[in-house]
Design a protein that fits this description.
With about 230 residues, the chain is an alpha/beta fold. Helices cover about 30% and strands about 15% of the residues. A hairpin with a 2-residue loop joins β6 and β7. It is globular and about 65 Å long.
């Protein structure tokens, strides 16, 4: 819907009518102003999502990249299963790492329970460059039940779709692909990082894929600039 036909956010906020025990008028006034901004944020997120959905066709995927999964060798096209869209997360757990990236692990731990829901709409693959056996051992250690893990045995996919840094190290990547009329194309990738970060903020995409940060953003402490999740506490 065109935003010019929407009720102004401040008007919707004024209609909200929510009150909490012992709150002051100062608090309510500030909260209603914040609510109007939250409504505008929701609308902006939807505008960005519509713009993303309207992207022209991306580059054709001409290689059938090979992976190793729990069921044996598998080609890129097979990762779609019966879906027309495929989401691929590149996990920073290459063979040179003693342990996987804590940030990636935190994200994927949150996703694990959502996988059955995701698979109703899209294909999903979590790809890392470590041998499959190593990935499955960690999956068991972490208590993951649903994440479909695949080893990029040749590094070819990881290199082409920006999951390997210029120095050869792991990099996280989030890519979406489509299959229409038998043709596979790249649709969208998260491209926000160091060069697009604002001063004083950790480089991150928007919307943020990590539920952890969404929850902490609702607290008075917010995101501590010197705190990141760990593999264990």
């Amino acid at each position: 819907m065109d935003n010019q036909h929407l009720v102004p956010a401040a008007v919707l906020a004024a209609k909200n009518g929510v009150r909490f025990p012992n709150e002051t008028e100062e608090y309510r006034s500030a909260r209603d102003a914040l609510l109007a901004e939250e409504i505008e944020l929701r609308r902006h997120i939807e505008r960005v999502a519509r713009q993303r959905r309207a992207l022209p066709p991306g580059g054709e995927v001409k290689k059938d990249y090979r992976f190793e999964g729990a069921g044996g060798p598998i080609g890129f096209s097979e990762l779609f299963a019966d879906k027309e869209t495929l989401v691929v997360y590149s996990y920073m757990f290459g063979p040179e790492r003693e342990r996987p990236c804590p940030m990636c692990t935190s994200l994927l731990s949150a996703w694990d329970g959502e996988v059955p829901d995701m698979l109703q709409r899209v294909g999903l693959a979590v790809v890392a460059r470590s041998p499959l056996e190593r990935l499955l051992v960690f999956k068991k250690e972490r208590g993951w039940h649903h994440l479909p893990l695949y080893s990029d045995t040749t590094d070819e996919y990881s290199r082409d779709y920006h999951a390997i840094g210029k120095d050869g190290s792991d990099d996280a990547a989030f890519n979406v692909f489509t299959r229409r009329d038998g043709t596979i194309r790249h649709f969208w990738s998260g491209e926000m990082g160091e060069v697009t970060a604002d001063p004083g903020e950790d480089p991150r995409g928007a919307p943020d894929l990590m539920p952890l940060w969404t929850v902490l953003d609702c607290t008075p402490e917010g995101r501590a600039p010197d705190w990141y999740p760990k593999l264990s506490y």
